[in-house]
């Protein structure tokens, strides 16, 4: 196939995508794409490279938002209504019937 029109390139892109995404489960897929994109982008003008970079940045931001939302939904399931347990009573050593005699006071006059 030798694409020459916009529609030809669109069809060519679809065919390439189908062929390449067959291997997306491979552990080498991400590094393969990185190398491929770098190699095919070498001859591009700086403005075209900026457009591609912006498109990938937007895609990355969208993926991060989706990931954040899915993590937030998972965390919300574990939230206890009312905020969970709250400590309202102070520790009172007098409840131990005088067993606290001098505890904590023996070092009061240190120095």
TrEMBL record:
Highest taxon, organism lineage: Eukaryota
Stretches with biased composition (Basic and acidic residues): 102-111
Coiled-coil region(s): none
Annotated spans, Disordered: 65-111
One Pfam family of this chain: eIF3_subunit
GO molecular function, one term: translation initiation factor activity
Record keywords, A-Z: Coiled coil, Cytoplasm, Initiation factor, Protein biosynthesis
CC annotations in GO: eukaryotic translation initiation factor 3 complex
Subunit-structure text: Component of the eukaryotic translation initiation factor 3 (eIF-3) complex, which is composed of 13 subunits: EIF3A, EIF3B, EIF3C, EIF3D, EIF3E, EIF3F, EIF3G, EIF3H, EIF3I, EIF3J, EIF3K, EIF3L and EIF3M. The eIF-3 complex appears to include 3 stable modules: module A is composed of EIF3A, EIF3B, EIF3G and EIF3I; module B is composed of EIF3F, EIF3H, and EIF3M; and module C is composed of EIF3C, EIF3D, EIF3E, EIF3K and EIF3L. EIF3C of module C binds EIF3B of module A and EIF3H of module B, thereby linking the three modules. EIF3J is a labile subunit that binds to the eIF-3 complex via EIF3B.
Protein name: Eukaryotic translation initiation factor 3 subunit J
Organism: Leptobrachium leishanense
């Amino acid at each position: 196939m030798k694409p020459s029109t916009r529609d030809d390139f669109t069809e060519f892109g679809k065919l390439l995508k189908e062929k390449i995404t067959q291997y997306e489960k491979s552990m080498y897929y991400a590094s393969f794409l990185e190398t491929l994109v770098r190699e095919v982008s070498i001859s591009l003008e700086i403005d075209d490279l900026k457009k591609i970079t912006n498109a990938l940045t937007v895609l990355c931001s969208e993926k991060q938002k989706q990931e954040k939302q899915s993590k937030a939904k998972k965390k919300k399931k574990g939230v206890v209504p009312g905020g969970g347990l709250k400590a309202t009573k102070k520790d009172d050593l007098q409840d131990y019937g005088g067993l606290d005699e001098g505890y904590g006071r023996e070092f009061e006059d240190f120095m």
